[in-house]
Amino acid sequence: MAITTASFAKAKAQGRKLTMLTAYDYTTARLVDEAGVDGILVGDSLGMVMLGYDSTLPVTMEDMIHHTRAVTRGAKHALVVADLPFMAYQVSTEQAVANAGRLIQEGGASAVKLEGGVAFEEQIAAIVRASIPVMGHIGLTPQSVNAFGGFKIQGKTQEAAQRVLDDARAIERAGAFAVVLEGIPTQLAQRIAQTISIPTIGIGAGDVTDGQILVAQDMLGMYGELSPKFVRRYANIGQQITQAISAYIADVQSGDFPNNEAEGYTMDGTQLEGLH
Ligand SMILES: Nc1nc(=O)c2c([nH]1)NC[C@@H]1CN(c3ccc(C(=O)N[C@@H](CCC(=O)O)C(=O)O)cc3)CN21
Ligand SMILES: CC(C)C(=O)C(=O)O
Ligand SMILES: [Mg+2]
Fold first, then answer.
1. Which residues does the record give as 3-methyl-2-oxobutanoate binding sites (predicted)?
2. Suppose 128 and one of 59, 95, 141, 175 were both cysteines; which one would form an S-S bond, judging by CB atoms 3.0 to 4.6 Å apart?
């Protein structure tokens, strides 16, 4: 059975931890989906991991739709959530609803995610009114990298923690079905998880949230340019890829690959005699 936003609420009610990972392409979506995660996020982190930018700010709606289409073709079970990129929802509520609609209609996503709480309560409520489920995202919101002066943990002082808690309440009030808590102290994440009734999905927010999310390439050891403390490395796929490619280069150069019996094709030799 396919996962829905109702499955997220049910998991929280039953105390079953929710699992999410990112995917940006068909092949990865299939692998992540077959392993059995509840949700797949087509994150705007694809700008860094897939496109080589040093932040998520250059990512466009066209980028998001292109990758979301690939992921939705590969995901048979998990709920696919797509990020609204920087400037797709900040300018006006009308633009926010229209762009959320494109991720659903053109991308095939089942829900959208946007960063911020109090400041975008109106946008969230309007997208929800258009029958599009919304996931909130607060704390270390990467689209605010310039305002934060870097990818810095948020909510460490009373004033900063109050802002994050107010954002969480605004997101719940606006009708979001879940919220990502990123890069905040575990004690603050616990307070938020106790205060709001919708599922909380943590990344760098400790073990107190209703679920967890990571960037797949981070936990698989395929993307070395960031090493946030919250990433646990479950494999070293990047190293395995480099080793496999080095072996291929050596085999071609030595004449070991290809082997004509194992990896080549033959024809009836008499057919060659007629060639001129
Ligand atoms: N591959 C990837 N993984 C991510 O988790 C991710 C992206 N890309 N792109 C968008 C944002 C950027 N993110 C980041 C990037 C760096 C840190 C980081 O270095 N954090 C410091 C904390 C510094 C402090 O204490 O304030 C760390 O040491 O963990 C955290 C989140 C999370 N997101
Ligand atoms: C890290 C997650 C929450 C995200 O927003 C992304 O991958 O873009
Ligand atoms: Mg994102």
1. 44-45, 83, 113
2. 175
pTM of the model: 0.98
For CA atoms 71, 72, 76, 82, give the dihedral sign. positive
Say whether 34 is catalytic.
Answer: no
CB 218 within 8 A of CB 237: no
134 has which bridge partners?
A: 112
- What is the mean pLDDT for each group of 10 consecutive residues in the chain (276 residues)? 96 97 98 98 98 98 99 98 99 98 98 98 98 98 98 98 98 98 98 98 98 98 94 98 98 98 96 93
So what's the ipTM on this one? 0.98
What is the fold of 5-235?
Answer: TIM Barrel (3.20.20)
Please check whether residue 179 is in contact with residue 198, taking contact to mean a CB–CB distance below 8 angstroms.
yes
| Active-site residue, from 62, 172, 182, 273 | 182
Distance 141 CA to ligand 2 centre (A): 9
Query: What residue's CA is closest to ligand 1, atom 17?
Result: 228
Residues with Cβ within 6 A of ligand 2? 22, 41, 43-45, 83, 137, 180, 182, 203, 213, 215
Q: Binding site annotation covers 122?
A: no
